[in-house]
Structure of Polysaccharide export protein Wza:
Amino acid sequence: MKNRDLPKESRASGPLTIAVSTLTLLSGCAVQSQYPPVPPDQRQLSVQESYFYEVAPGDAVNIFVWGIPELSGTVPVRPDGMLTTPLIEDMPASGKTPSELARDLEKELALYVRAPIVTVIVNGFVGLPQQQVRVVGEATKPAAVPFRKHMTLLDLMIEVGGLTEYAAGNKAVLVRFIDGKQREYSVRIDDLIRDGDISQNFSLLPGDILVIPEAWF
């Protein structure tokens, strides 16, 4: 059995630590999954429809101030969640939608210029941890992927390059937190991407963690 280090994006505490523990438990398990399949859930539709991207540390933010090019430009969101623009040294940005950030910038800039109009455009999306979908274990490129509206398991597997040759795809587990409680569901990735069984595809939610164990040979 081969040991592999988790990618930098996937090293985290809390929910991800639980997922890594689940992966360790599953690695030597050759029996049928003890978890139920992902159930149809109307909550998935409502969460996806109400989803708005929130600015995260590492994002590049393009700030356009109408009529004042000197105050416009692209700036990074620092690891502390703040950004700095001309005239504003420290503006909290992390956790705000682009529109919310634009309104806050307008308020600050109004101290220096008359009736500023600001537009914020986000580039190079990173995503807050609670707005990411994480993949650990035997994916070709394990990663934390920013959630997108209507994102499915198939979309996620394309993002991470599919499974490694050592993966036990049909023993994968989805870790999901619902109302603060952890739930685990069986996922049959081999059936989906190797056998073309589209019935094994399902909608993802922000914060989901996909754990792919190594096959037992």
Q: What stands out?
A: Residues 8-50+129-212 form a domain with the Outer membrane lipoprotein wza fold like fold (CATH 3.10.560.10). The CA atoms of residues 191 and 197 lie 5 Å apart. The beta strands are 60-65, 73-76, 82-85, 88-92, 118-123, 132-137, 143-146, 172-178, 181-187, 209-212. Helices lie at 15-27, 42-49, 98-109, 153-159, 189-193.
